[in-house]
Amino acid sequence: MAETLTEHNRAENKMGIMPIPKLLISMSLPIIISMLVQALYNIVDSIFVSQIDEYNKAFTAVSLAFPVQNLMIAVGAGTGVGINALLSKSLGEKNYEKASLVGNTGIVLGFFSFLAFFIFGIFGVNAYANFQTKDTEIVKYCIEYMNVICIGSLGIFMQITMERLLQATGKSFLSMIVQLSGALFNLIFDPILIFGYFGFPKMGVAGAALATVLGQFVSMGLGIFMNIRFNKEIRISLIKYRPNRKIVGAIYAIAVPSILLMSIGSVMNLCMNKILIQYSSAAVAVFGVYFKLQSFLIMPVSGLNNGMVPIIAFNYGAKNKPRIAATIRLSCYIACAIMVLGLAVFHLFPGALLRMFNASADMYVLGLSALRIISLHYLFAGVCIIFLSVFQAVGSSIYSLIVSMARQLVVLVPSAWLLSYFFGLDAVWWSFPLAEIVSLLLSVIFMRHIWNQKIKPLA
User: What is the reported pLDDT for 120?
Assistant: First the structure.
């Protein structure tokens, strides 16, 4: 008992007393590093897939499968936001029994999320692939890839849950190790399973999917071990676990808006693919390249968010306004710096970026202007991303949902369709900076409301 209380005091001292710059960096940097490795894997994975065939059909198929993969991440990470915020708030309130109940409930919810995608992997993949395109070769690649990803999705849901439990109690370094283990496994086995090296069968796109799934299971296993062995703030014991409707409701009160928020990206991606496929598969491939490359920016900012959310949630529970304000301000500075750096790279080196993906002549010509135009929205995105995470940390995820819906479904997709209809393919890409300006305006309005109503009144 004394040991447990000591651990709790350490957690409180770190989250409630450590200087904000040092705390934010110590919480975020391990996650940023692991997410950068994950982003690197995603890019390398796509580079390998782009070598499978001459016309980038395998790469196009993986791009068409991306909305479903993104939906998995949305469900897992969105639920993780609910777990993370509620668990950190419980620790800030010194309610350790509730914190343990939240952790065990999160594990059970992750398993049920897997069951939903397992069923889709068996019964829904064929219809999805044929809805996207009539090109039989692309359909074949898409089905091969998605079957493996969906049926083997237990790994990603348990991996995300275990990482969130570690992050919520301030153990970001251990969370980094968990994610790095799976990413490194992917990097090693991706080319081996795709091209059949060292006596392994040549599996093509199915090999890329299998390497991903196996890497997720490696992270899952290590995450379970790390939580049982080192996470003393919560007690993981599913044998003694009893379902608690109130806890499930509290998690999903935060998580559902977050899941919908992230899922909107899948809907947007699906709609954009349908708009672009009317012109050529090369246009879809360019859009896929953009999403893979932007992960190198979004992943670090997401890592920053993952470090920021428990700090804000903890200090919100502890009613410490100055620490909340300092965390938000520093996070905005860092996020904007990352985005401006990304903008510079996209504008200066678009040709080199496209050549990494074995771009065909059509894909190369389309991509040069597309990458430069789309990346203009990075000027506004840093602040928006941070504000949306602040809304989630203080239990107002509905604002994040409204902003994201307005950006991606109300502005981006309709404007992309209108621009394509009246001005052609080259104009489609301007829908991204247009939508981000709307997102920034709404984010600032909601942030002022949250500050005045929830944060400013704190002692």
Answer: 94
